[in-house]
Amino acid sequence: MFQHRLVFQAWNLSWASLAVFVLVVASAALVVLLSKYERRLVPTSVGYGLLVLRLCVIAVLWLALLQPVLTWTLDRERTGRVVVAVDLSESMATVDRIATPAEKLRTAVGLGIIGNDQNRDQVLKWITDYEADREPNWIGATDPADPERQAQLVRSRKEFVAGAMQEIEKLPRAEIARRLLQRQAGGWLSELEKHFVVELRAFGGKSVTGDFESLEGLIAKPPESLTPSITNLVAGLDASSADQESPIKGIILLTDGRDTAGSDSVAAARRWRDLQAGVFPVLVGSERRPKDIVLDRLEVPTSVFLNDKPLARVTLQAGGFEGEHLSIVLEPAEGAAETKSVQVPGAASGLPPTVTVEFPLDASKLGRRQFTVRTDVKKGETREDNNAREFAFVVVDDKTRVLLIEGEARWEFRFLESAFARDERVRLEKVVFEQPYMGLLPQTFFPKQLSQVTMAAKVEESPLAEFDLVIFGDVAPQYFPEPMLAQFEKFVSDLGGTIVFVAGKRHLPNQFQSPILSKLLPLTGPKGVNSVDPPTAPPHLRGIHLRLTPDGERESSLQLGADAAASREVWKSLPGHPWVMVGEVKPGATVLATADDGQALPAEVERSRALIVQQYYGLGQTWWLGFDSSWRWRHRAGDQHHHRFWGQLARTAAQNKAAAGNEFVKFGLESSDVGLGQEVQFRARWTPQLLVRRPDVKAKVLIFPREKAKLDEPLASIELTPDPARVAMHTGRWIAQTPGEFRAVLKIEGPPLEAVGAKGDPKKADSGKEIAADFFVRGAQTKELADVTASRAVLEQIAQISGGRFLLPHELGQLPKLIQPQDLTTSEAHEYTLWDHWLLLIVLFGLLTAEWVIRKWNGLP
Questions:
Q1: Which residue in 691, 696, 713, 702 sits closest to 747, CA to CA?
Q2: Which pTM does this prediction carry?
Q3: Neighbouring residues of 115: CB distance < 8 A, sequence distance ≥ 6
Q4: Three-class SS of residue 722?
Q5: Tell me: the pLDDT tens digits for 734-776?
Q6: Count of CB atoms within 10 A of residue 547's CB?
Q7: Residues 6+ apart with CB under 8 A from 578
Q8: Nearest C-alpha neighbor of 391 from the set 410, 407, 372
Q9: For 205-240, b where at least 16 C-beta lie within 10 A, e where not — what string?
C-alpha cells in the first residue's frame, strides 16, 4: 500500500510566519502596480506575461520559505519461510525390518498407506493398543453387531494392516522421508506452501540446498559435499536467517536422531528460539535396537618405530548375538591372515554387548603397512556394510630426541625424566642447573651446564641440531643469555624444531627480560592463578581443570582416547592443577586447551584463559603449557595419560621436524589417515624470509595415487589459500572420494625460488627435490553405522528448547496448525525536502531568466 502527503514544516501561527506572509503580499502588490505602469510602454500581452513571471518568482520564494517536505509510506507484506531439512546420512539407508508394529503402523499412516478421514480415529486406537503391547480392538462402536460380519471385518483389517506393515519393512528411512514430503492436495506440505515459502535442505555432516523435485536423485546418490558418513544435526539447523524480507518461521527436521558429529545441537535450537522460529523434529526410523555386528572402534597408531610392538585394538558391538561366537580376522595386504574367536557376552543396561580383541602388528619392515579387519556377516543382520574396516600405519626407523632443561629437579621434571627414560623410542638428555652437590661423586647426578652445547657459531653444526624436542622448564635468566636464546630461536625457525615452555612459579617466564624469548612464547602478559578449591577435596575434583578447544580436539598429540568423544571424556576426568599461568594469546597462535569452568566460552575469552597454546615459528613451532603439574594426571592411572600425552607430543615434534619441505616451506597434512568422505587438510608453512621477498607466493597441491605418483595427470589439483589466523600458513582441503593410498605433491607457482647464500649471494633452491606427503584413505567409517537405532531424546530436547514440537510420522498433519502465519507487514517511510532541492533552484533561475529576457527584448530597463 502506498500513501503520500505534502507537509510545510515552517507553516505555523508564529510572528515570523505572519511577517513572511505580509512581505509576500506586499511584494505581490508592488509587482501588480509595476505591471500597470509597464503596460503603457509595451503591448498588453507582454505586460501580463511579465506579471505572471514575477508572481511565480514570488510564489517559488514563498514556497521555499515554507520548507515543504514530500513524505510517503510504503507497506510491504513479507512472506515467511519454512525450512524442511532431510537427513541423508548413511544411517538413513537403514531398512527397519525389526521395527515394532506400532512404529510400522505410524509410518504407514504418515505415508497415507492406511487411514483416511473416515477411519483415522480407529487406526489411531490400533496404534495405541500396539504401543501398550496388546492386541488391537479391531471392531469399532459403529461396526455391525453380527458376529459373522465382525469376524470378516477382523480378518480383512488384520490382512490390510499386515500388508501395510510389509510394505513399510521394504523402505529405507530416506525413502520414507521422501514419501512423507510428497505434495498432496490438502496435505500438510501443500497447506504450508499456501502461507510460506517452503525450502528444502539435505544434510549429513554438512548441508546443501535442493528442491523437492530433485530429492529422489539426492537420496539415490548423495553428493560428496554432504559428507554422508557423518550426521551433524547442527548442519540441518544451520539455515540462513539473515533474509529480513522472508524470515524463517519454522524448521522441520526429518531424521533418525543420530548425531555422530558430537555437535551442540541444543545451542542451535536455543538460537532459533531467540529468533522466534520453532524446530519441529520428525523421527524417522525404529527405536528398537537392531540385530547387527558393527566394527565400532579401532585403535591403531598412525606411525610406529622399527621393531616396535604396536597393537590394533578392535571393539565390536554385537547386538542380538548374545552368547554366540564370532570370528574376527586381521588381513594384511601382504602376508598371512590371523583369526581370533570370541564369545559375545550378555547385554547390560539396555546397551548392545561389546567385545574387544587385540592383534599384534608387524613392525619389522620400514614403510607403510595396510590391513583389513573384518568379521563374517551373520544371518539376520540389519546391515552388511559395517563388518569390515581398513587401516594403515607407517613404520619409521628413528628415535625421538628430547632435551629436558630445568632450573631444579621439581616434581614435573622428576616424572618427565622417569617417563621418557622408560620409553625405548626416546633418546633423552637432561640438564638441571641447580642441584645439591656434596662432592662425594666426581660430578653431579645430572649435567648442569649447557653453554658448550649451544654456543656454536652455526646452530646446524651444534649438538642442538640433533634434537627434535626441547622442554624448557623453570630456568633462571642468568643461565640463558641472549646469544644462547638466539641459538634456540634458530633451532626452531631454521631447523624446524619444537620447544615446549612449561610455566614456572619462580622464573619462567616472568623473570626474563628477553626480546627473543618474548618472540618465542605464544602469549604475552602471563600471570599466575591459584585454585580456590580446598586442599582436602579429592585430587580428581580439586584444582583448575583443562578443556580442549575444537582445535585441541583435532590435535593428534592431545588425543587421549580412541576417538574424539572418548578423548574428551578423558580430559574431563583428569585431576586439576592447584596453580596455573594464563596470558593473552598472540594473534597467530592457536589455543588448544583452556581453563574449564563448566561452560562454553566465547573465542575472545578462550584466548585470555588459555593453558595449552601452540604457535608456528619459522619452520618449527613453540608450545606453552600454563601449568607445572601434569604429573598429577598419574592419579589412579599411572602412565596411561601422563606418558601418552608427553610421548605423543615428542613424536609430533619429531614428525614436524622431519616434515617434507626445503629452506622455504614445510609441507604436511593435518592427518595422514582419514576416512572415506572426510576432508584431507593440507598445510604449507612459509618462512618469514620468503614472505618478505614473495608476499604473494602461490602454491597448489597435486594428488596422485601413490603407486602412480609419477603420472602427468593428477586426480585433483587443490589451490592453497592463506589462513586468516596464521599469516605464514596456506591451507587447502580435498574430500577423499575413494579409499586407498595417495601422494600429495606441493607445486609452487611463479619463478624459481632463490635462497641467500653464506656470502649474501642468491642461489637457486633445489627445484628438483619433490615436496610430497603420503596419506591413506580408509574405507567407509563405521561410526555412523555403529548404532543405527533411531533416537528421540535429543530431538525432543531440540523441540522443547526451540519452542517447537516433537512429531512422529503420523502426526505430520498437525504442522499447518503448529506453524501459523503471522502478520509480517512492515512500513517503510520515505521523505524528500523540496525547499532545498536542486529542481527548485532551477525553476527559480529559469523564471528570473525568462523575465529578464522578455523585459530586455521589449526595451524595458
A1: 702
A2: 0.52
A3: 108, 109, 123, 124, 810
A4: strand
A5: 987 777 788 899 998 877 666 444 334 444 444 457 888 888 8
A6: 21
A7: 530, 531, 535, 542, 543, 544, 629
A8: 372
A9: bbbbebebeebeebbeebbeebbbbbbbbbbbbbbe
Share of the chain above pLDDT 90, in %: 23
Return the C-alpha cell found at 341.
Answer: 574367536
| Cell output for 718 | 587443490
What is the full DSSP assignment across 375-416?
EPPPTT-S-SSSSEEEEEEEEE---EEEEEEESS--HHHHHH
Sequence-distant (6+) residues with CB within 8 A of 538 are none
Residue 112 corresponds to which cell in the numbers above? 497415507
Residues in the chain predicted with pLDDT less than 70, given as ranges, are: 1-4, 7, 9-14, 73-79, 239-245, 347-350, 397-398, 437-457, 460, 562-563, 597-605, 658, 671, 677, 707-712, 725-727, 752-768, 779-783, 822-830, 835
Assigned C-alpha cell, 336: 598371512
Q: Using CA atoms, how far apart are residues 795 and 803, in angstroms rounded to an integer? A: 12
The three three-digit cell numbers of residue 344, written as one number: 559375545
State the cell numbers at 526.
602471563
In this structure, how many other beta carbons lie within 10 angstroms of the beta carbon of residue 438? 6
Residues 352 and 332: their CA atoms lie apart, in Å, by 29
Task: Tell how strand 354-360 and strand 278-283 pair up.
Answer: unpaired
pLDDT in tens, 610-625: 999 999 887 789 999 9
Name 511's Cβ contacts closer than 8 Å, sequence gap at least 6. Answer: 476, 477
